[in-house]
Amino acid sequence: MKTANIKTMNNITLDKARKGNLITIVNLPGGEINAQLIRIGISEGETLLCLQRLPGGTIILQKNRQEIAVGYDLAKKIKIILP
Amino acid sequence: MKSDNIININPRLSNVVTDINHFRNEKVVLVGNPNVGKSCVFNYLSGKYVDVSNYPGTTVSITRCNYNGKKIYDTPGIYGVSSFNEEEKVARDIILESDVVINVVNALHLERDLFLTLQLIDMGKKVSLILNFADEIKKRKIKIDTKKLSDLLGIDVYETAAVDKVGLDQIDNAIENARVGNQQLDLHFLMQQYIDEGIPQAEALLILEGDEFTTSKYNKPINKDDREKIYITRRNRVNEIIDIVEHEDSRKGEISNLLGRMSLNPITGIPILFFILTLVYFFIGDFISQRVVDFTENTVGVGIVEYNVKSFVSNFASSIIDVEILDKNGNLVDKKIYNFPDGMRVNPELKSDFEKFSSQPGALTKFHFSNPIAKLFFGEFGVITMTTTYLFFLLLPLVIGFYFVMALLEDSGYLPRLATMLDRTFNKIGLNGKAVIPIILGFGCITMANITTRLLDSEREKSIATAILQFVIPCSAQLAVITVLLSGAGVGPLLIFIGVIGSVLIILSTVLNKLIPGQSSPLLIDLPIMRIPKLTNVFKKMAYRTYGFMKEAGFWFFVGALAVGLMDITGLLLVWQDILAPLTTHWLKLPKEAANAFVMGMVRRDFGAAGLFTLDLSIMQITVAIITITLFTPCIASFVVMLKERGWKEGITIWLGTWVTAFFIGGLVAQFIV
């Protein structure tokens, strides 16, 4: 039961996050964009706050004082869990 | 050969040797993330303001100055050293060649900025850290232990508040005391194999990190997994350092960013978006392009400058001068025609009569020169007279207005939020939110917008944005004409116009998205804290960019005018009009004279279109005419700038495409409504 739950949780992508969710990054999309994500502070295992989800799916993340906008197409490829 | 090897084996030794070689000519590079106040530091050093950027990626050009016998370079804001876009490539090259790196970080965003710092240290560069916005962290009750930070990094840390020039006197010490910091040891071990080959440490690191440019330069394999591992380790090191050095006492920081939050909340953000766009419209669309330009173009440009230049030329050249006196409603009150077959100066009586008559209020003076050279330079479309008026009295106020608004939006921190709010909309046309900048500028001047497409991330996006600008975005000169023509026509034509142009935009972007290989880059931007912009910075930024634009594009407006002027005096213009005439009359169902609009529109978009005012057109013919003119090729200056930016092949393809589309769509609409 519990493992199944984690499995489905693992399938959540960042675009599904809702305003106010604390999310933990599980998997980045791979390729060149990974380096850019890690640089800016979005790396695997990192926990961030979903500050806002705009209509259409653009996600705004908060990490301490830093705010980062992630486009919908990119958010779709970032796997997260909601702790 | 041998000594080369020795130099490169030990990075410290290499630095010593470099010091001796460049004792008086050290290269000092300012490096930092976007929005850290790097340019403020540079301006302090250069004594001359250059550019303070807020929006990630606007400092496209590199600025250099001399300071105490050292060469100081400013670099574009970057998040790390690599080759993801043009700016990073430029910054990378300058950093590789540098002797000393002054790394400017934003104390409020230390967590983001230290990634670059650690990378610079790992490169084995001599670095000093400028901890900027030190005043802001005190205000927000954040404590940063600079002593400990300095120990952990192994380099000096200097606190500054660069906007207020506080602490910048320490910059000499920062340059003097820059040193090689604490590097990640295992990384150094991996790098050694390349360093042993004689490759400088900085480049050895980039090879390990799979930087495409550096690996191919030294013919090494690219290992992108290694890059990710190195980046993750570095990111973790940053997080550890932050845990040790930074303590936040209150949540005060969040309050002052309330406006930033509100501008991204859909409920408050959409009204804020419309409010700001409306303000921009009233400032530029109404105040600048109507009131200010009316004064500068007609009163100063045509009424004073052109009148005096042409009067002076008339002294020597054979001329016929029409003078019409109009009352306030534009009705003809009086009219005189002066003929000076041998120039004005041989007929002083008539000259003084002309001067008296033409200096009455409401006088409209038209000079006709028969000498082809006089006509080419000083005639109706004269290279000197018309282009000067156009460039300095119409375009310059507009460009200033647009750059002023852009600088305000940038320095307030709203621009990245605007890009974020509009991201999904721009996704639909194959771009991301960043493209809002060239598109907004396009409504001012396509030439200016074409240059700004540089800040987009990929070639694919630059191509799509450039095409959209040339095809469907009307510049301010066109908008003015369209507004006048549509104002009396009612809602129907307006809806047809918007519908047709909108459809072309959708079809065009769909086709381009299919045709151009690859994918557009996704939005991933850092949102700076919103603050009230400093007006002196805004004005200086505006002035610097306006100067840059005029220097880069101004010349091509003269070239364009010269080309059309030459076609005019050689009779080629008539030939062209004759070629276009059947297309105009049969396909577009417009009078033959309307063809002038398309030909003259190549010099000035409003020019030919203004000729339509005098023709007796039905409302639907007007609709067809403005659709065709909007889709039609932009002016020659924007064409040349497009060729320079996008290359011959793409430039010519887009240019021809606008011809075909304008006539095809215009005619298609005409078949239905005229």
Structure description:
The complex is a heterodimer of chains A (83) and B (674). By secondary structure, chain A is an alpha+beta fold. Chain A has one domain: SH3 type barrels (Roll), CATH 2.30.30.90. Helices cover 27% and strands 31% of the residues of chain A. Chain A is built from 3 helices and 5 strands, in the order αβαβββαβ. A 5-stranded antiparallel beta sheet of chain A has the order 4-3-2-1-5. Chain A is globular. Chain A starts with a helix and ends with a strand. Chain B is an alpha/beta fold. Chain B has 3 domains: 2-248, P-loop containing nucleotide triphosphate hydrolases (Rossmann fold); 294-388; 389-523 and 533-673, no CATH class. In chain B, strands 1, 2, 3, 4, 5, 7 and 8 form a 7-stranded mixed beta sheet that branches. In chain B, strands 11-10-12 form a 3-stranded antiparallel beta sheet. In chain B, strands 6-9 form a two-stranded antiparallel ribbon. In chain B, strand 4, helix 5 (110-122) and strand 5 (126-132) form a beta-alpha-beta unit. In chain B, helix 17 (372-378) packs antiparallel against helix 26, helix 24 runs parallel beside helix 29 (605-611) and helix 24 (476-487) packs antiparallel against helix 30. The longest helix of chain B has 49 residues, at 266-314. Chain B is elongated. The termini of chain B are far apart. Strand 4 of chain A pairs antiparallel with strand 13 of chain B.
Short description:
Chain A has 83 residues and is α+β, with helices and mostly antiparallel strands.
Largest sheet of chain B: 7 strands, mixed
Helical region count of chain A? 3
Sheet with most strands of chain A: 5 strands, antiparallel
Strand portion of chain B: 5-15%
CATH topology name of chain A, in short, is SH3 type barrels
CATH class of chain A: Mainly Beta
The Rg value of chain B, from CA coordinates, equals 30 Å
Oligomerization: heterodimer
Please tell me the overall pLDDT of chain B.
86
